[in-house]
Amino acid sequence: MVGSTPQASDTVPTPVVIPTRGDTGALDGGDTQGVEGVRDVRGVDCTKAPTGDPLEEVARLRTALVRVVRRLQSVDVAAGAGFTPTELSLLGAVVRRGPVRSSDLAACEGLHPTMASRLVARLAERGLVCRDPAACDGRSTLVSATAEGHERFAQLRAQRAASLAAALQRLPLGERRALEAALPALEALGDELASSSW
């Protein structure tokens, strides 16, 4: 009726379409010219292309890595209740590398030797690692994971992997493949950072 106030049932809201990375070629790495401010359902700008400024790209890489690491650490702490992120990392290093000298373990994890010794002692109190004198040098200590330590770490690793796998599955296939292709470079970067003098 003319002049009447429209009722809620009389109006049909115009749907708001938010393109995602899988909805348009521009968001899948195609031409982004003319596409401005497009964001995915999380509000992340999907069209931000490389700036050509090396410092800017390094800053973006660092920000991305920090965000991922912080989230993974929060998942790790939730999965391994009672463990700090450093303790979990140290236990993993012992499982993968053990038997390993305490000094080498500290260097590998980027820890002060005294701090590494304290953390190893905590893990040993829980029955997760054991310490034995090195056969060739009685002044050195070799750290090994116990059977319980191996089992506990395997459980934690499975829980952490499941959380990350779920997040990866929500990414477009192209982005998952890009991350897989970047693994060697990221591993090399980690090794370089670990060996660098700061």
Structure description:
With 198 residues, the protein is mainly alpha-helical. The chain has a domain at 67-193: Orthogonal Bundle (Arc Repressor Mutant, subunit A). It is built from 6 helices and 3 strands, in the order ααβααββαα. β2 and β3 (141-145) form a beta hairpin. The relative contact order is 0.08.
Task: Please render the helix and strand layout as text.
Blueprint lengths: L53 H26 L5 H13 L2 E2 H8 L3 H13 L3 E5 L7 E5 L1 H23 L3 H23 L3
Antiparallel strand pairs: 1-3, 2-3
Compact description:
With 198 residues, the protein is mainly alpha-helical. Helix content is 54%, strand content 6%.
Order of strands, widest sheet: 1-3-2
CATH superfamily of the domain at 67-193: Winged helix-like DNA-binding domain superfamily/Winged helix DNA-binding domain
Order of helices and strands: HHEHHEEHH
Q: In total, how many beta strands?
A: 3
Q: State the end-to-end distance.
A: 76 Å
| CATH structural architecture of the domain at 67-193 | Orthogonal Bundle
Average pLDDT metric: 76
Write out key terms for the chains shown.
198 residues, 3-stranded antiparallel sheet, single chain, Arc Repressor Mutant, subunit A, 6 helices
